[in-house]
Amino acid sequence: MIRAVVRGFGAALPKRVVPNAELEKTVDTTDEWIVQRTGIRQRYIAGEGETTASLGEAAAREALERAGLEPQAIDLIIVATASPDNTFPATAVDIQARLGITGGAAFDMQAVCSGFVFAMATADAYLRTGLARRALVIGAETFSRLLDWNDRTTCVLFGDGAGAVVLEAVEGEGTVADRGILTAQLRSDGSHKAKLYVDGGVSTTGTIGHLRMEGREVFKHAVGMITDVIEAAFAATGTTVEDVDWLVPHQANRRIIDGSAKKLGIPLEKVVVTVDRHGNTSAASIPLALHAAASDGRIKQGDLVLLEAMGGGFTWGSVLLRW
């Protein structure tokens, strides 16, 4: 059985760090309020010349270096983003060109904060069916450019950044002891669109628009939806919560992360948390968290790692993989 195995990982963050204290000067909020409600203490904001593609390229280059591969070894690039550089072409083809890759396929995936999970599942399908051999899966966002900086309920939550992994098709035994992606569980329910969306677009307003969110409604649904796809991953693989070495959740809100872990019975010491320093970086949050935990040695080869996310739409999903 073919498995999509992680060969390398990378990350990139903008130069500018914006602590909560800086936002206190521009909107009616406080550091204490932001930390208490969200767990966020700072975020990175893209400056001039820093774009979704440039951040994605930097993360991809680190992932390739860690994998010991030249760019031409990649025959599939999937970029998860809700903040592309252009309406078209896809940010993925821009990154492909920046890396000097001239073969294979490159495209974007839009599932907002669940985008990286959806992109990992898609790359897994390509690799397992022989449509590609090695894939770059990138989550990259410049969400700061979608924000209404006068809306204190949303502008304090989000940040910019990018993370990437290199996946390679490797033959496994077909058991949960295999390295690579063991299962992916994806869900969507468009009836929740109005709870988290951007109020602009090409065919509606002709503008980029701003992010709008009903925070309480999102919070209300988040824990249950996350639990749904995690339990489905366990059912699909015959594993249990006790088998999980690390939970790497979407970094939206510390209360959602803690609530989900508690409901599932996962000890907080097994949960990777970076929301305090990155804020919510949408599709970039899981690969940024993976990078943090793998580069400092917490996540080791052979560990069972559970990824989960929920995003606008609503979309939600999980990936269970052996590192």
UniProtKB/TrEMBL annotation:
Entry keyword Transmembrane helix: no
Keyword annotations from UniProtKB, A to Z: Acyltransferase, Cytoplasm, Fatty acid biosynthesis, Fatty acid metabolism, Lipid biosynthesis, Lipid metabolism, Multifunctional enzyme, Transferase
Record-listed E.C. numbers: 2.3.1.180
Residue stretches making up the Beta-ketoacyl-[acyl-carrier-protein] synthase III N-terminal domain: 107-190
Catalytic residue positions: 113, 250, 280
HAMAP family assigned to the protein according to its UniProt record, in alphabetical order: FabH (MF_01815)
Subunit structure: Homodimer.
Protein name from the UniProt record: Beta-ketoacyl-[acyl-carrier-protein] synthase III
